[in-house]
Amino acid sequence: MIQPLEMYHTKRDPDRIAPILHGLGNLSSLIRAPHSVLSLIANMTVAKGWLDGLEKTLVERVTLTPVVQMEYDLEGTPYVRVEKLNDALREAEHDEGTEAYLNQATGCADLVLGTSWRRGVQHHPGQRHQRPPSPVPA
Questions:
Q1: How many CB atoms lie under 10 A from the CB of residue 108?
Q2: Is the pLDDT of residue 44 over 70?
Q3: pLDDT tens-digit map of 60-77
Q4: What is the DSSP letter of 132?
Q5: What's the mean pLDDT when you consider all of the chain?
Q6: What pTM did the predictor assign?
Q7: In Å, how far are 55, 80, 81 from 38, measured between CA atoms?
């Protein structure tokens, strides 16, 4: 089951904010409940360079992409594919059961992530902006 991202401000380094990913879900769930088949793919961008005269590597950006397991039938053989939730929602036609399934998965994603994921909004470290280090010594 997916859980929120926590941005932890470290005590030893005030410039460092560490992402804590409590729950990314399960990409291969055997349970078909929408909250169980919803997972997150985390992408992190790090910046390495110099900040206040010290060489540092800091997390610059964290992006969480909700994905969902979709069940299909190929010539009588069922298979499961992991798709971005946004892509699954954009597909033109779904049967009534699939539509309800996607709506429930979307509600779970909204509950945990808010609605910004629908627009592809980046999740940045913490409330305060983390300065990325400059690539060359200052």
A1: 21
A2: yes
A3: 889 899 999 998 888 999
A4: P
A5: 84
A6: 0.78
A7: 38, 13, 12
- How far separated are the first and last CA of the chain, in Å rounded? 44
Distance between alpha carbon 42 and the CA centroid of its chain, in Å? 5
Q: Taking Cα atoms as reference points, which of 89, 78, 70 lies closest to residue 27? A: 70
Place of tokens 């990325």: 132
Residue with tokens 């005269």: 53
SS3 68: strand
Residue the block writes with tokens 């053989």:
77
Instruction: Decide: 110 and 92 in contact? Cβ < 8 Å.
Output: no
Overall size of the chain counted in residues: 138
Alpha-carbon separation of residue 78 from 38, 70, 101, 106 (angstroms): 19, 10, 17, 23
Question: Which of 103, 94, 119, 128 has its CA nearest to residue 14?
Answer: 128
Give strand pairing partners of 39: 67
Cα 91 from Cα 112, distance rounded (Å): 23
Q: Looking at the DSSP assignment, which residues form a beta bridge with residue 134? A: 50
* Whole-number Cα distances in Å, 1 to 35, 88, 100, 129: 6, 19, 19, 29
Torsion from C-alpha of 64, 70, 75, 76, nearest 10 degrees: 150
